[in-house]
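Researcher: Here's a chain I'd like modeled. Treat it as a single chain, no partners, no ligands.
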Amino acid sequence: MKYEIVALVVAALCAPVVPQYRPAYIKPCDLKKPDFKECALENGNYAIPFIVKGDKPLGIPPLNPLQLPLIEVKQNNFQLTLKDAQVIGLQDCKATSMNLDPTQFDAVFHIDNLNIVGTYNINGKVLLLNLQGEGPANLTALGGDYHVKAAISRYEKNGENYLKIHKPTLDFTLKKASFDFGNLLNGDEKLGPEINQILNENWQDVLKDLGAPIQETVTTIIESIVSKILDKVPEKYILPE
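Model: Modeled as a single isolated chain. Structure tokens:
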């Protein structure tokens, strides 16, 4: 089932940034050398802890946790919103493969335990179950591998070459997922917990319906961070000739 993410507002990632910036943690790799991919992976993992702490000149806020004012998913007669959401677990992100050149970005990131918590409102059908309710929610993704691909183009700005990311796509696999929706069915003390149990016992099938918030959240975070780095750091400091 395909979902349309109609709103994913990351207000903190919209902070003003300086025209040009070269963070010390961004280490270049030579595309012409045979160990380029190994270099990119090593340097990418070196940079991640610095990025997680935040980088004001780049407009990247601290990512542990990351605040998301709104996530909203709509599909036909199904709707799920998460307000005042927090993404927890990005501090443990590690790249397992990394490739960047002037035409493409292709990387896999592993996150052991990713939590998206917030106040939910749900109205729709999952596993033939009619879900309705509003209250606290926790979506947990364990052992996640997130494979992101995007086209890259080169352009000139202020006499320097820069790179730009376009239309990233993300596929992911999990070892396990769990869902906890408090106050389901308007607080039915018997059916609410039973439905949560059914959702968790059948998490692989449920993920086909409720995986969209995880997928789009991770995609947006990666796109925002990569875009800000490429927009402010000239290509020569990333992929020197």
